[in-house]
Design goal:
Blueprint (H helix, E strand, L loop, with lengths): L5 E7 L10 H4 L5 E4 L6 H8 L4 E3 L14 E6 L2 E6 L10 H10 L3 E3 L7 E5 L2 E5 L13 E8 L3 E7 L7 E4 L5
Parallel strand pairs: 1-2, 2-3, 5-6, 6-8
Antiparallel strand pairs: 1-9, 4-5, 7-8, 9-10, 10-11
Length: about 180
């Protein structure tokens, strides 16, 4: 059993201007929120800011006039995050993406773009795509993520926004 302090991080991507009405309740009590791009409307970030401080990146559909970078490094509770809208899964990483991880050594890579939730690990780095939280696309469920940062591990979860009887779609044991 893990002991010690823990912090919860809410993670979403591909909102395309739509903030699902369930997200404020799902993210209640989170320490930080990460938006991995395709925000669609800057006002959405301000609405999320009323829940917790937001770290956001611009996605491929977002205007270059939005005041967000295309990639960010962030340290949350001593854990290093690399956030970018477009990044490959472990199975499809390019040599350039592998180099980014080897050079920057993040503990967690957060990305979006595919609208498909994804959790995996490569050489000690957690890869986390919360899926698409905005309008339904590609016959994929609409999802968001939660990452619990514990003293001795990282616990990622994917929450299905479409399943009203049980929001928890995927739960993974502590990665580290």
């Amino acid at each position: 059993m893990t002991s010690g302090p823990r912090k919860l991080v809410g993670v979403l991507s591909d909102t395309h201007g739509k903030l699902d009405e369930r997200i404020p309740a799902l993210f209640e009590g989170v320490y930080r929120i990460i938006h991995a791009g395709d925000i669609g409307d800057e006002d959405l970030i301000w609405r999320l800011e009323s829940i917790a401080p937001v770290i956001a990146v611009r996605g491929n559909i977002d205007s270059p006039k939005m005041c967000f970078p295309t990639e960010r490094m962030a340290v949350i509770e001593g854990r290093t995050f690399y956030i970018r809208h477009q990044f490959s899964t472990v199975e499809q990483m390019t040599p350039a993406q592998k180099h980014v991880i080897e050079e920057r050594m993040p503990e967690i890579v957060v990305f979006g773009h595919s609208h498909k939730a994804y959790v995996d690990e490569w050489r000690g780095t957690l890869f986390f795509n919360p899926g698409g939280a905005g309008p339904k696309r590609f016959n994929l469920p609409r999802t968001v993520g939660l990452i619990t940062l514990k003293e001795d591990c990282i616990e990622p979860r994917i929450i299905n926004l479409e399943n009203s009887s049980s929001c928890l779609a995927l739960v993974f044991s502590c990665i580290f």
